[in-house]
Write a structure and sequence with these properties.
It is a single chain. The chain is mostly beta strands. The protein folds into two domains: 228 residues, Sandwich (Jelly Rolls), CATH 2.60.120; 199 residues, Jelly Rolls (Sandwich), CATH 2.60.120. 7% of the residues lie in helices and 44% in strands. The protein is built from five helices and 36 strands. The strands form three sheets. The protein has a 17-stranded mixed sheet that branches. A hairpin with a 2-residue loop joins strand 32 and strand 33. The chain starts with a helix and ends in a 15-residue tail after the last helix.
């Protein structure tokens, strides 16, 4: 133990990790440990850490070989450091009654760690939580992620080689991303978990998007298609596949309530039969087009009865076309709707019917057209297979991370991995082996199967 601690102190001296001013602010405490952890204080003194030891703003935390340590910050953030890792707490400000003053800025100097964020990064300033490295900066939006700074090929510099099977992002690959957002919009996953959407947020197959009053969002899909979800609306991505390598193209979208503006992408233009847009009482067949659809009143309530004649077009189900044409189909018939035309599903017959005098509230939709937002599809969805070269790796287990280098950035969502080095900033098609399979990192609760283990209570 003494030799290990002496070695760590020597390494700190060699690294030249110093601070001009002592940091006295309590930032958190050590949770569980397995092996050795030391901290260099802001005044240059060295402290050998133990479970429940205090962690201060300005500390540089250093783990020894084959050592793991978890730090629990005051806001509830949990960080589990890998062996041979150096992490500096540059800035840490947290007041539970003042979200606007939150600030957590860390610097990874060596090695890696897994983080589950607490209140900082989930409330107040969206840029409050940042992780700096020599190659890139990680911005966090309330998430669970793993970071490794690899000095050697396949990240073997800490001497631990995982045998985990390489995992792809196929099952959790983002099918769309938020490119514009106003107000409050959230996504409910197929497993019931609710995510708050922000600019750059990924959208997945199975997500149900819900906008608040006076809110809207523009989502761009992998095939270039786009939607604007209007205020007080609910929309579901039931199915979406767009893989050029396998020629798999399929989209099933559903408007459950409210309104949506749609521009079709490659699926709707090249394989019409593979693109389905549904509302409760009808289906909109597209031929490469731009249209507005709405579903309110009996439509949104799922009513199947057709009673009195519809008085206002927006009180049921309908479509207005502003580019190309669509086919509006119900169980009782089909009608073709051309450019600058509108049609509804009538309440008395259940048949689609053309609207002869289109109300201004339909013609002058206040929500932005989805194609009014500039988009670089190559930048949004380009992926590259990694070769394990040295650099910074980040894998998102849940939530959202922004990986930035200079003026460039990529948004990473659940199941996605990114890479950065002196020249590159990439979204990886596959998650490397060494980013998975470390049970010590995955055991964030602190119940280690071997070595010493204590948890802060």
């Amino acid at each position: 133990m003494k030799n290990t601690i002496s070695l760590l102190v020597s390494l700190i001296a060699l690294l030249g990790i110093t601070s001009a001013q002592a940091a006295q602010d309590l930032a958190g405490k050590v949770g569980y440990m397995s092996g050795t952890l030391v901290a260099q204080r802001g005044d240059g003194t060295i402290k050998v850490m133990a479970p429940k030891s205090e962690v201060l703003e300005g500390d540089v935390l250093v783990t020894a070989k084959d050592s793991y340590a978890q730090v629990v910050m005051n806001d509830g953030t949990k960080m589990t450091l890998r062996p041979d890792s150096n992490l500096k707490i540059d800035t840490y400000k947290f007041n539970k009654d003042s979200p606007s003053s939150d600030s957590a800025i860390y610097r990874l100097l060596k090695g890696g760690f897994r983080t589950v964020t607490g209140l900082i990064g989930k409330r107040g300033n969206p840029d409050a939580f940042k992780l700096h490295t020599t190659t890139a900066t990680i911005g966090v939006r309330g998430t669970d992620f793993t970071t490794r700074l690899c000095a050697t090929q396949n990240c073997q510099d800490d001497g631990k080689v995982t045998t985990a099977v390489k995992r792809t992002t196929e099952e959790t690959r983002a099918v769309g991303r938020v490119m514009l957002i106003e107000g409050g919009v959230e996504a409910t996953q197929s497993d019931g978990i609710v995510r708050k959407l922000i600019l750059g947020s990924p959208v997945y197959e199975g997500d149900t998007l819900k906008s608040a009053e006076n809110s809207h969002t523009v989502v761009v899909f992998r095939d270039g298609g786009r939607i604007t979800l209007q205020a007080s609306s609910v929309f579901k991505v039931e199915q979406f596949k767009f893989e050029k390598e396998t020629n798999e193209e399929n989209a099933v979208l559903r408007l459950i309530k409210g309104g949506v503006r749609v521009v079709t992408g490659l699926i709707g233009r090249s394989k019409h039969e593979n693109y389905k847009f549904n509302i409760t009482t009808a289906t909109i067949g597209v031929r490469g087009t731009g249209f507005d659809a709405w579903c309110n009143g009996p439509c949104a309530n799922g009513a199947k009865e057709f009673g009195a004649t519809l008085q206002k077009p927006l009180e049921g189900a309908g479509v207005y076309v502003w580019s190309g044409e669509v086919a509006l189909t119900s169980p009782n018939g089909t009608i073709t709707v051309g450019i600058n035309q509108a049609a509804i599903i009538t309440r008395d017959t259940g048949k689609p019917a053309q609207v002869t005098n289109i109300p201004q509230e339909i013609k002058n939709n206040p929500a932005p057209k989805p194609d009014s937002v500039p988009v670089d599809l190559e930048k949004l969805f380009k992926e590259r297979s990694g070769s394990g070269e040295p650099g910074l790796y980040v894998t998102v287990h849940d939530g959202q991370v922004i990986l930035a280098k200079g003026d460039s950035k990529i948004d990473l969502g659940r199941g996605e991995s990114g890479f950065a080095d002196a020249e590159n900033l990439l979204r990886l098609k596959e998650t490397p082996n060494f980013m998975h399979g470390d049970k010590m990192l995955e055991n964030l609760g602190g119940n280690l199967k071997h070595g010493s283990s204590c948890v802060v209570e």
